[in-house]
Design brief:
Elements: H1 2-12, H2 18-38, H3 40-45, H4 53-74, H5 80-102, E1 105-106, E2 109-110, E3 114-117, E4 122-125, H6 126-144, H7 152-170, H8 175-192, H9 196-219, H10 228-239, H11 247-260, H12 284-317, H13 321-345, H14 363-381, H15 389-392, H16 404-411
Antiparallel strand pairs: 1-2, 3-4
Helix pairs in contact: 2-4, 2-12, 4-14, 5-6, 5-7, 6-7, 6-8, 6-13, 6-14, 7-8, 8-13, 11-12, 12-13, 13-14
């Protein structure tokens, strides 16, 4: 009896949406199968004599630490993240500059994305952390405007300067992350009621700046480190079936998916894991389908769709405008990244280097995903709390004097 009460008390400490907790746990537990199987290639290349157990233990540590982070984050009132995002914007800018200054190369190609954490001797991808903080900052900015329309001149300094600075620092080493982050910011601004006229100006300016960056990098390749040639190669291989540079990865992923059939070849019986680069991270979905078939692939996709559905429910029930925008800012990008990863595996998109959240191996991605879901759960756990006066006034309006989220709620 005492044991039952203790178990019940432990379970009750998990606040927020129980379905999200269940789906996160399901993905975490499920991930051990494909990661353990797909790590065989890394084990041989990394000098582990084919011992994948080392990678399994490493993945277990990443997940265990990530779930502890999620638990800790969901206990913190979501309103705290409003001020924290302001304090961390300068920190992430300095981290990104430091990361770029290292000039790390991977197989002869510039790919400065990581810094080495002291003491623990682990790598940390600063762009993942920077993207999460920036999304929270943008949500805070829109919510803070309350009933006053956002002017373009004021938003240039307080909104777009941090956005372009951080996205610009991520861009040279990781185009896909920069584009996804910017797309999520645009989506958040549209939902938050930012003027479409102002947004059009920003989008045109962004395209012009990206074009200038690309042309300058091609004209003066030694001027600053970048991966422009890699971007062009991936786009060309996606549009030209005769290209061989990136086609190898895509072809191996196609073979893995095609041989999986309906039920798959069996867990641990993947053949393409030995030939497919990044089989435990970027292309892990192809290994899942090869081993577990269409049933396994659809099952994984359904879990992410359930997460998206629960995020929409939390947005609807959130008690303030900042809470609504915060859930969209941190929750939707995780599911969107999952769809991008799956799309790359089935050749709907060019190779991007995006991992499958909570399933692929890799510490930073898992930890930032857990932070994001922890914040979502923080909002969900406090949906019944009485709104403060400030929260009541946090209703951004668009150029027509309407709050898009209120209009959406009324329509539902």
């Amino acid at each position: 009896m005492l044991k039952k009460e203790q178990d019940s008390g432990l379970f009750n400490r998990l606040m927020g949406d129980k379905t999200i907790w269940a789906m996160v746990a399901l993905l975490a537990i499920f991930s051990f199968l494909p990661v353990y199987s797909a790590s065989s290639n890394l084990a041989y290349l990394g000098g582990q004599d084919g011992n994948t157990f080392v990678y399994l233990i490493k993945h277990f540590f990443h997940l265990a630490f990530g779930l502890l982070i999620m638990f800790a984050v969901h206990k913190i009132p979501y309103s705290y993240y409003r001020g924290l995002s302001i304090l961390l914007i300068p920190v992430v800018v300095l981290l990104l500059i430091f990361t770029l200054a290292q000039g790390v190369s991977v197989q002869g190609s510039y790919a400065s994305r990581w810094i080495q954490l002291p003491i623990v001797n682990m790598s940390f991808q600063t762009s993942e952390f920077a993207g999460l903080i920036l999304m929270i900052y943008v949500a805070r900015y829109i919510a803070k405007k309350r009933k006053n329309p956002i002017t373009f001149k004021a938003s240039l300094l307080h909104l777009w300067l941090p956005v372009f600075l951080i996205v610009g620092l991520i861009l040279p080493a990781n185009l896909s992350t920069a584009l996804i982050l910017f797309s999520m910011i645009v989506l958040l601004l549209i939902i938050g009621g930012y003027s479409m006229r102002y947004l059009s100006i920003i989008l045109v300016s962004g395209i012009v700046m990206l074009s200038i960056f690309g042309l300058t990098a091609k004209a003066f390749p030694d001027l600053f480190p970048n991966r422009v040639d890699t971007w062009i190669s991936r786009i060309e291989s996606f549009t030209d079936s005769k290209s061989e540079k990136e086609q190898y990865q895509v072809e191996k992923a196609k073979i893995a998916i095609a041989t999986g059939g309906i039920t798959g070849n069996g867990i641990g019986k993947s053949v393409q894991r030995n030939f497919l680069p990044q089989s435990s991270s970027d292309f892990i979905y192809a290994i899942i389908v090869e081993e577990m078939g269409l049933i396994g692939g659809i099952g994984v996709l359904l879990v992410y769709l359930i997460l998206m559905f629960r995020i929409a429910i939390i947005v609807t029930n959130a008690n303030s405008m900042f809470a609504k925008l915060l859930v969209i800012a941190v929750g939707v990008p995780v599911v969107f990244q999952a769809f991008i990863n799956i799309g790359v595996a089935v050749n709907l998109f060019p190779v991007t280097g995006q991992t499958l959240p909570l399933v692929s191996s890799g510490g930073t991605s898992i930890w930032m995903t857990c932070v994001a879901f922890g914040i979502v759960q923080s909002v969900a756990a406090r949906k019944g709390e009485v709104k403060s006066e400030n929260d009541k006034e946090e209703s951004p309006i668009n150029e027509f004097g309407e709050n898009p989220l209120d209009v959406l709620s009324e329509a539902q």
